[in-house]
């Protein structure tokens, strides 16, 4: 019989980095329970070679969440009881139930075979596509500062075809995934037969919009009946015994109000167990919904670039945003985040910009702060960042445990601190930090270091600043972390930088 450490070493070679989408958006921004468990194994080689689009790419694999060769792991566990005991914990982390709620047939098959004894700890609801209803196209009075009253007319274009006698024709929309009472019954059957789930992901579809020439715009509208019935079901599901051991929760919801609704299903005991939390607000309608919307804006004032202004004479808002504006209901999101005292990793995507200063995190007395923080389209200050990253007062003598931080499209309050201070603080005050990924960092207009942008919709920039010392501090942080990793070859591909990338000359 092989010793346990040798068996673990063998299993480690069946794990490989999750680099889906490479070389696009990094996958290390958020991770869940599987990461810590996998990293307890001897890691694979720090650099692996992969062929991508016919070119050999070297990847610093130790920075990515690891995935498993499911088929080989399943075969290996059948070899003996010892191998079964070794493989099962990692197979549970690799495997997941994915429930296609748009297919009654697929849900029925799953409901017939699922058993509480299945070795799976992760449940994923990939996308409730039926939640989108149609695209509303508005026509405005040209040349007027438009508000709701200035709409001349609108037309609704279905995103899906709802007719029973649907026939595929050129240019016709696809058939709408159905979400009715029978689907809810099947979901209830599935949830009552699940094993104990530790990681749960729920995803709703994104709503976007367009704007053209100052006289027409569009926004995707939600089917509120589907949204409300789905939220009601999953609120109830979160209180079921099978989800009473959640440590990893990932919610992609239309608006901040939905966070407050669905998380009512989690009592305080359940919230105490959550270690990894991801909340993405997917209704990105309105001019401040995403930076790319600014490309559609009529030339002029771009103060709305960071969500400062609510206007209607641009990319319109969806029906969800008109009823439950993300910023006005954001306290429901922050209240839930603040009630999870033992968080280790946190990922927030704010779409219409949320304000981290409104968070009051009741962290555990023994907390050394977050290990991972990822923020997108959020306003921050140094004090609100430190509230997440520094140890609690009873353990203030210990060092912070931050390992990686990712900030994208994040705006700094004018509170006497600038991004240069934050970069230097991260480099000098967080000894366990191993990775930093930052882009599109901005200031409020009142900040002394605010600098205007010629093309604010462009994503190919890192910081809204003309101060060379600030840009050098940003580069120095990344260079410092790459040196800690052993050099640029051992640092993630997407984060490899040079002075040229920052418009700097080498000293």
Describe this structure in words.
With 507 residues, this protein is of the alpha/beta class. Among the domains are: 4-95, no CATH class; 96-328 and 349-356, no CATH class. The chain has helices at residues 4-12, 33-39, 70-77, 81-94, 104-113, 181-192, 224-237, 256-262, 268-273, 319-323, 330-338, 382-389, 419-429, 468-485; strands spanning 15-17, 48-52, 55-59, 66-68, 97-98, 122-125, 132-140, 151-158, 199-203, 209-212, 216-222, 248-253, 276-281, 345-355, 372-380, 404-412, 435-439, 442-443. The strands form four sheets. Strands 5, 6, 9, 12, 13, 14, 15, 16, 17 and 18 form a ten-stranded parallel beta sheet that branches. Helix 3 packs antiparallel against helix 4 and helix 13 (419-429) runs parallel beside helix 14.
Radius of gyration, in Å, reads 24 Å
Shape: globular
Mean pLDDT: 80
Give a quick account of the main beta sheet: strands, pairing sense, barrel closure.
Answer: 10 strands, parallel
Low-confidence stretches are 21-40, 163-170, 296-312
Can you count the beta strands? Answer: 18
Share of helix among residues?
A: 25-40%
Q: β content, as a range?
A: 15-25%
Q: Between the first and last Cα atoms, what is the distance in angstroms?
A: 58 Å
Counted by DSSP, the helix tally is 14
Q: Pairing-aware structural class of the strands and helices?
A: alpha/beta
Summarize the structure.
With 507 residues, this protein is an alpha/beta fold. Among the domains are: 4-95, no CATH class; 96-328 and 349-356, no CATH class. The chain is built from 14 helices and 18 strands.
């Amino acid at each position: 019989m092989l010793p346990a450490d040798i068996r673990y070493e063998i299993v480690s070679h069946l794990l490989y980095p999750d680099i889906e989408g490479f070389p696009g958006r990094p996958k290390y921004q958020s991770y869940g329970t599987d990461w810590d468990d996998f990293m307890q194994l001897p890691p694979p080689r720090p650099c692996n070679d992969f062929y991508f689009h016919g070119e050999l790419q070297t990847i610093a694999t130790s920075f990515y969440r690891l995935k498993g060769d499911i088929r080989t792991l399943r075969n290996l566990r059948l070899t003996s009881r010892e191998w079964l005991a070794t493989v099962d914990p990692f197979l549970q982390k690799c495997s997941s139930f994915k429930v296609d709620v748009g297919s009654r047939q697929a849900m029925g098959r799953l409901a017939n075979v699922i058993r509480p004894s299945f070795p799976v700890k992760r449940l994923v609801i990939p996308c409730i596509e039926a939640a989108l209803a149609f695209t509303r196209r508005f026509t405005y009075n040209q040349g007027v500062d438009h508000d709701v009253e200035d709409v001349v007319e609108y037309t609704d274009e279905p995103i899906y075809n709802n007719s029973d006698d649907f026939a595929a024709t050129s240019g016709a929309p696809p058939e709408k995934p159905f979400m009715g009472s029978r689907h809810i019954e099947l979901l209830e059957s599935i949830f009552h037969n699940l094993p104990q789930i530790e990681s749960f992901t729920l995803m709703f579809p994104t709503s976007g919009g367009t704007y053209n020439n100052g006289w027409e715009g569009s926004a995707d509208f939600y089917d509120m009946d589907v949204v409300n019935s789905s939220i009601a079901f999953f609120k109830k599901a979160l209180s079921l015994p099978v989800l009473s051991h959640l440590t990893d929760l990932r919610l992609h919801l239309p608006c901040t109000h939905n966070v407050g609704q669905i998380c009512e299903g989690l009592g305080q005991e359940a919230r105490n167990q959550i270690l990894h939390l991801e909340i993405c607000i997917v209704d990105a309608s309105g001019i401040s919904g995403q930076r790319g919307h600014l490309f559609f804006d009529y030339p002029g004032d771009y103060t709305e670039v960071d969500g400062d202004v609510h206007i209607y004479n641009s990319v319109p808002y969806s029906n969800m945003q008109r009823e439950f504006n993300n910023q006005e209901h954001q306290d429901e999101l922050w209240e839930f985040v603040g009630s999870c005292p033992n968080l280790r990793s946190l990922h927030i995507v704010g779409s219409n910009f949320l304000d981290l200063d409104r968070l009051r995190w009741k962290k555990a007395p023994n907390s050394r702060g977050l290990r991972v923080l990822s923020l997108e389209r959020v306003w921050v200050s140094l004090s609100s960042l430190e509230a997440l990253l520094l140890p609690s007062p009873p353990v203030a003598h210990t060092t912070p445990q931050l390992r990686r931080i990712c900030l994208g499209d994040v705006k700094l309050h004018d509170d006497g601190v600038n991004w240069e201070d934050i970069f230097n603080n991260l480099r000098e005050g967080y000894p366990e930090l191993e990775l930093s990924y930052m882009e599109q960092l901005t200031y409020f207009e009142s900040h002394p270091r605010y600098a205007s942008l010629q093309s604010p919709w462009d994503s190919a920039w890192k910081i809204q600043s003309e101060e060379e010392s600030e840009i050098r501090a940003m580069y120095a942080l990344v260079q410092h972390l790459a040196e800690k990793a052993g050099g640029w070859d051992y640092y993630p591909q997407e984060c490899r930088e040079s002075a040229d990338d920052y418009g700097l000359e080498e000293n």
